[in-house]
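Running log. JK asked me to keep both predictions on one page so they can be read side by side. First protein, sequence followed by its tokens:
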Amino acid sequence: MHQSLASPSPRRSFLQRLAAGSAAFLASGSVAGAAAPSHAAVVAPDDPLFARIRGKHRQVFDVTSPNDGWGPVFALTWLESTKEALGVPDSDITAVIVMRHFAMPLALSSDVWAKYHVGEMINVSDPKTKATAVRNVFHDNIPMHPGLTYQQLAANPSVVLLACNKALTVLSGMAGQRIGVSAEQAKREWTAGLIRGISPVASGVYGVHRAQQAGCTYCNGG
């Protein structure tokens, strides 16, 4: 049987180990919601991910924890309510969702969750079994949006979905060590296991920063 991270609190032990092994990762903390520049800010042509940000209304959602899958809901609510309140078309609005820190694994396929015990790592249970999740329970279970998947969300032209590569590197390495897989192999498999349409970005804090440079206002997505 797979051994838990520690007793009595696997979550606490994991956080302690991560702090000791990757202080820089944890030191990233939260990003201040400083005023964003004008939406007319120039986006570097070699940054195609951020060149996808379009329209007058732009907001970045900084998602740092699983939060029962509610991170993308804030973005969807903003999209829907902004269009309703202002009567603007889809082409005039963009939501950027950055999954970083312990929210990064939400961007992974269920195969990766099963092999690397992701549910145990980030303390997520499966609502169907009430046991530790061995699948990505959020991918097709976005609150208030039954039937909508992350893949479908990422295909929306008004949405840019990003995953923190720094978190992917650190977490995959730790998960690989626990099951006897090299850090290099684990990172390859986690990268290959990103849900279609979700793009890796150098780091989550970089993604939030670039989105704000491209004219996005800031929202803490949980």
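And the second, directly underneath as requested:
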Amino acid sequence: MMMSPRTDRERQLVIATLKGVVEGLQRIVGRNVEIVLHDLSQPGHSVVAIANGQITGRKVGSAIISGPFDDLALQKLMSGEDVVKGEAFSIVSDYRTRARSGHELDSTSIVLRDETGRAYAALCMNADRSKLRELETLVRGFIDAEASEPEQAAETDSANVDDLVGEIIESGIASTGKMVDAMGREDKIDAVRYMNGRGLFLIRSSVDLAAASLGVSRFTIYNYLDELKSSLPAEALAHSRRARKVKA
């Protein structure tokens, strides 16, 4: 059984070791798989090692919220639903995310936890299969020779943290389908649920910005987050029941 680190020094030793793992994997996975290591103690610049960052436009020093959209592992991290008492890590595998370029990615994440159950690092892999899909289309003869030229990988830098925070808040409000003035309490909770799922509240000062955008106090945002946390067991049970029905 893998032992969980107890001290900050032990946590940093694990992270330092994983930096070497990222560097080693980069030499064998090719350019279509991004491997990124997060130090979760510094969410504003959590990326401490990365291979093939051109896939999502990230680099060392990028924020945790600069990753791909629909990140199931980040959503589970924020909700706490992947925590298993006594487990040193949890794996969220075989889920789809989306890069800012629009490419769909096949993703797997490993979240590492210390002796108290607190997440301190995450090792994530995002595979861009778009080239293979393009090749399949070519083989089938559905695109002409001119359109078959390889697409250049996006080499843009990650958006800065302030822009990302603003984008997540705007998307959270838009997800309700209502203007802020027309929102009721439940609408605002839904907006906060979206923001939390995107990791917004890991970033310092984001609570104040979200509160100002929703026209509530920062204490109201904390109350919403507490409500969402307390409702997690019921939501997880409902999800489990839905999953059993699908399998049946």
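Observation for JK regarding the second prediction: Residues 161-234 form one domain.
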